[in-house]
Structure formats: structure tokens, C-alpha cells
Design brief:
mainly beta; Immunoglobulin-like; 7-stranded antiparallel sheet; 4-stranded antiparallel sheet; 41% strand; binds protoporphyrin IX containing FE
Length: 163
């Protein structure tokens, strides 16, 4: 899997493409590095964007870590189910020849103060990615996931320090 991203000239909007060599759901998530706990808590306190293609039409959703699990390691919930709003917009999505890819845009700072993490000029964000074992959204297996540290503004990135 890999991601590519850019910010608009005004530095108000993120555009991000997530690509996977699989015909499955694919997703990305982030939280400010070390602001809410150790980096190794990958699924904890995360702002997710997930794309599911099983209906034939790509559907993306804005999600948040599920607080019913102490470490977040269970299905992320819809922002709209916890008092937040859907703030992700798909600009393209495809599943062709064993490759799934989607591009979405999102304001760096949304009005959703409940379920979104603002993307601000700061050092690093802890970014996680995953894809499923099938089209339906569910556990990704203990293989199809990853994490690293990213500075959305400068492009600097590297391995997680504690994970
Ligand atoms: C229905 C959805 C999901 C379920 C049920 C789920 C469940 C789990 C579980 C049980 C673990 C611990 C076992 C393991 O390490 O594999 C885990 C770890 C992990 N998950 Fe998820 N997950 C889901 C979605 C996601 C999504 C959407 C992402 C990223 C966008 C993600 C990223 C990760 C990462 C990076 C780890 C490694 C954690 C660590 O090493 O501490 N997961 N997940």
C-alpha cells in the first residue's frame, strides 16, 4: 500500500490518494503523534477515512476510533454516529486489475470538533493504513496494516519511534 498527498495553495485542504494491491476495502487514519498516548496504540484516538467498494460504487466514510475498546482495536465508528459530521469527499475511486485506489479531500480544520483531528502545522502525525481481506469492511488480518510518522506540511516522514 502507499499514499500520496498534497495541500492546496491556501493550505486549507488535504487531497490524499490511498492505493492498495488488493480488491478490498482500503483506509487511512491519523492522530497527532504522541499527543494522546504512545505511538504503538495505532488504532487509538484515530480520525479515519475508509473506502468500501462492495456495492459496485465506491463509498467513503469519515470515522473515528471506537471507544468501546480500550485500545481502539475494533471497527471504527461513523463520525455521524457520535455527534460528528462527514467531512470527507471522494474525488475518484477505482478497482482495476487487482489494484484499489481512492482519492479524497478534506479540510485541514473542519467544523467537526467531536470526531475529527485538525491537521495543523506541527511536527508529526501518526498515520496508519490498512486494507481488508475482502470487500466488506472488517478486520484486516495481522498483516495488511502499517504505520509511520508524517509531517503533512513538509513531507518529512519516517518510522514510528515506539512501534
Ligand atoms: C472493522 C475494522 C477493523 C477491525 C475489526 C480492526 C481490528 C484490529 C485488531 C483486533 C488489531 C490487533 C491485532 C493486529 O495487530 O492485527 C488491529 C491492529 C491494527 N489496526 Fe485495525 N481494525 C480495523 C480497521 C482498521 C483500519 C481502517 C486501519 C487503518 C486505516 C487499521 C489499522 C491497524 C493497525 C496499523 C494495527 C496495528 C496495531 C499495533 O501494532 O498496535 N485498522 N486492528
Amino acid at each position: 500500500m502507499h499514499i500520496k498527498w498534497s495541500l492546496d495553495a491556501a493550505k486549507t485542504t488535504l487531497q490524499c490518494t490511498v492505493t492498495s494491491n488488493s480488491m478490498t476495502w482500503v483506509g487511512i487514519g491519523w492522530h497527532p503523534a504522541n499527543s494522546t498516548g504512545a505511538d504503538y496504540k495505532d488504532m487509538f484516538d484515530v480520525d479515519f477515512t475508509i473506502a468500501v467498494f462492495s456495492s459496485g460504487t465506491p463509498v467513503i466514510t469519515d470515522r473515528r476510533s471506537n471507544i468501546t475498546s480500550v485500545d481502539g482495536k475494533t471497527a471504527p465508528v461513523l463520525d455521524t454516529s457520535i455527534g460528528g459530521t462527514n467531512d470527507v469527499f471522494m474525488t475518484s475511486g477505482s478497482q482495476v486489475g487487482g489494484v484499489t485506489s481512492f482519492t479524497f479531500s478534506k479540510k485541514l480544520i473542519t467544523e467537526d470538533k467531536v470526531a475529527d483531528h485538525p491537521i495543523e502545522v506541527r511536527t508529526m502525525y501518526h498515520v496508519i493504513i490498512a486494507h481488508g481481506t475482502e470487500e466488506a469492511f472488517g478486520y484486516h488480518s495481522n498483516v495488511f496494516r502499517g504505520h509511520w510518522l508524517v509531517n503533512w506540511f513538509s513531507g518529512e516522514n519516517g518510522p514510528c519511534s515506539n512501534c
